[in-house]
Fold PP2C family protein-serine/threonine phosphatase.
Amino acid sequence: MSGVGSIEKALRAAPPDRLVETLDVYLSASHGVKTSTVWLADYRTTTLSPAGVEALDAVADQLAPAQRAFASQAPVLETREGQALARLHLPVTAWGERVGVLSVALDADRLTSERPRLEEIAECFAVALGAAYRRTDRYHMARRRTGRLTMAAEMQWDLLPARGYAQPGVRFAGQLEPAYAVCGDHFDWSVNGDWLTVTALNGMGNGLDAAMLTSLAVNAMRNARRSVPAGQSQGGDLVDQAELAADAIFSQYGGAKHLSTLLLALNTVTGQLRMIDAGSPRMLLVRGGQVRDMELDPQLPLGMFGDTRYVEESTQLEPGDRLFVVSDGVHNAARPNEATYGERELSRAIRSTRLQPPAEAISSVMRSLRDYHAGDEPLDDALIICLDWSPRADP
């Protein structure tokens, strides 16, 4: 037997740090694959590194097409006239989170029959890799070959559920920068029934202090979200989340520290968007090719005062709407004697991404932000979230 069912069984039986080798043996025995390479994206999602034992120079000829497959989220095929082998590069993606790429070489005459199964196996492997990720350090180490994380960044990335999500009707992605030294900016999200809950946090302070403040807030909001009675699917009221987090922060810091936060809950069927702007990061709406600020009622940041109460507001998204959420490290980024990035470049960068999926749109805006800094190290964390909504197609 070959196919998804048998590879799932093989991966479940493998130790979590041996998934790459298990996949390679299975592909060779069941699908005639001559060689395989698993590439994992770094924390900035700009570089791919091999997850296996092979050195980068041994597979360097695969890197460029693998990066094209990762960026486009579509298979990339390499065939050359007169050569018996073909090489196929397949995105390794789970529920919309881009993990890496699977590159395989096989006889060209087997490509047509094997390709559909290989694409399914790459998706299956992405799910298994996500499950193994918290059970071994191996894949963490592969992702950081281009740099070492600070302690604060280690906390932030471990706190993050995933960097993306995609299902019919909704696509979502987020990114933190500087990826290897982020301190307090963060985002959290959860899917419960028809609701996607997203939280963007604009951290206060530096280093471990900022990371611990963010961790307290995120876990307080998760506690509120997960404490609803059985049978309710909205994942907790936004007011409950904001008020529990605000009380927890004030209890711990007595008002000396607070956290600017934007809380969102999107009904992925109807497009209803519920919001709380608690000293929030900035939110922009892209509709019909135009970019405009979402004007929300500002409320106090979480933890500034005790017993703070919050009020939800709501709006209705239209099919094809795109939301960008950016922290002040993006829209207020500044250079001497120049307009801020938000005043000069942000809207233009966002408009240029209209044909890109959320993850690539974020990468484009981040590149624009790095260009604005002209090689200088940014003075503040930067958070970008991109969310697309359209009604689900009838089954």
Summary: The chain is about 35% helix and 25% strand.
